[in-house]
Specification:
mainly beta, 8-stranded mixed sheet
Amino acid sequence: MVRQFSSIAVGILISTLGVAAQEYQRPPKVLAQLVDAALTPAVSISPDESTLLLMDRPSLPPISELAEPELRLAGLRINPRTSGPSRSASFNGLRLVDVASTRERAVSGLPSAPRIRNASWSPDSRHVAFTIDTATAVELWLLSKTDASARRLSTRAVNQALSGRAFYWLDANTLIARLVPADHGEAPEDSGVPAGPVIQENIGRTAPARTYQDLLQNPHDERLFDHYATSRLATITLDGSTTEIGASSVIAGFEPSPDGRFILLQHLQRPYSYLVPQFRFPRKVEIVDRTGRSIKVIAENPLQEEIPLGFGSVPTDRRSFEWRADQPATLLWVEALDGGDARKEAEWRDRLFSLSEPFDGPPKTLATLPLRFNSVYWGDDDLALVSEGWWTNRKARLYAVDPSRPGTGMKTVFDYSFEDRYNDPGSPLTAANRFGRDTLVLEADNDFYLTGEGGSAEGDRPFLRRYDWQKATTSELFRSSAPHYERPLGFLDAARRQVLTLRESADEPPNYFARDLRRGRARALTSFPHPYPELKGVKKELISYPRADGVMLSATLYLPAGYEPKKDGPLPALVWAYPNEFKSADAASQVQDSPHRFKRVSYWGAVPWVTRGYAILDDAAMPVIGEGDIEPNDSFVEQLVMGAKAVIDEGVRRGVVDPDRVAVGGHSYGAFMTGNLLAHSDLFRAGIARSGAYNRSLTPFGFQSEERTYWEAPEVYFAMSPFMNAHKINEPLLMIHGHADNNSGTFPMQSERLYNAMKGLGKTTRLVMLPHESHGYR
């Protein structure tokens, strides 16, 4: 049924024939003010817990920054001018706050409009090292806490073309960094004349791969990748003296041992792949000393093109290398015991090994896990916490092991479902130790601390708990309470029970506090002003309502300032959502978010439109449940429609939503949801689909949380694809996509093909392609 346009449809679809306006439009002033408002600074606390480093965040960069050159190689986005990441988020100012006095000092010596990244405190808390992206390089800078001044530390440029850390502190006076080689030279040129065809072949080997983007395509791409990814390790002292280590290579990652005497070094090697990104290229993993001399080769892993399908599948080779954080030089790695195949039945999945200096003996078994390894939290000689998980049944466990007696068994600390927000025990709290590495905050008898969101029927209530090792029980030290949402970030002084928190309320922007747990008092460390005076008076409410099958859902309702339902009547509404898969109806019914969180506003979401007279139903729950052996996607469409109808019905019941003037929108998988809702229901008058994937035959080896391939479940792939059901879409659809989308599966072609299908079918639609934008718009 084709409906008459309402104001909401006309608002998003002004022109439907030919090519629309090709210039950027300015939004109404109130929307522009919301977009340009200052963001809450990020914070980093010094190891001695005396000083906060505030890192100011810009709102949005100019389009000229996005238009800087970019190479797309082996799954990476590289700025060829800087040998660093292109379009990376950055900070534009630094400030220091003394915790005791709350005195704030602006940092001097920075260039104008700096693009700051990678800030890291020195182990003695006297300095902060960071990088600044300029037009031609990634520079290494140093901030002195004493006089709050910053200066460039080295004339050598940092190489951060490959992901991972740019540098580490070796000690209080020395850093180690990946640098652009001194003999880097010019990038190889493409003659434009191919030497021959590009050939790939496979003879009887099973090599499924997700739909990756930005892969290598020819030998010239390989040469470019080598040129920009090649780096040289070097130590740099605080006076700028630089000492190179070893030879130049394609360094995929490096990490010094906690005592700074050894370096775990990972080099990428050929043959490269045109099927998978660089993180699955062959690699050599070795331990070297500070001169670059090889001490021990730990692994030589081949190309990883044949990892089995399924969440939880991993390479069969050694993986997850890391130094033990509480010891001078002990290495940890993981090996799969099930062939890396998550679909294979197995009693044991992973084994953790450790090897200590001088690295010449056999490795010791630290733990053997029935599920897949997630992470390890190091404590001391007697305690480490190991976490494991399994996607299929959403199982998670936390074990305690004794590192001084490897292989002597594990004690289960927590056994839970990671989709169960209400019973999440929290994550172990860590802080920097004498090596400057994060380790567990331990008390007497190895008691440790846990922080989490503390979900409940009233919404999230963050907590800080202490786990009593002797009694195997937890006691709550702090829990956020109305009217605030207050999240513990870490201890300022564990002995005195002083905690750093980030506190906000529905009308108070987030600010940092020092909370005294013994006295129950909180002292403000910052006083950031309200960034959105235009939103004062806007009503925000966390609402709950039932789906037709009894599953309880939630959404955050925003209503315009001064609006009164009985006097003003129902409003046009915008539902903004993102589907999530669950294995339990109980978990799907749990409330997310909090009514006491600040009204965060971003160009990214739907909330700004409350200033234009819309009711906003934000983050509306759209769970897709498949209990037991049933897969969620077997009834994806039916459950989506039920969820959408439930949120509209609740708005109507409250008298605030006009059911004949409701639009739906979402980003990525939310865009996919939007296409499906327009195709399979008549609940909405228009849709906004941003950077979605609409034809699931183009992602044949799985997508989102779907583990089955297209050939295993073709009917599911077909039924879930809006492209296959484009003839059923009878409402106006606005599609937006970044020209440079880098997300797996959401090729710009996905939006182009759906637009062409709808245009060919005579539908009302508009496609907006954003120049230079990736999957997340900047």
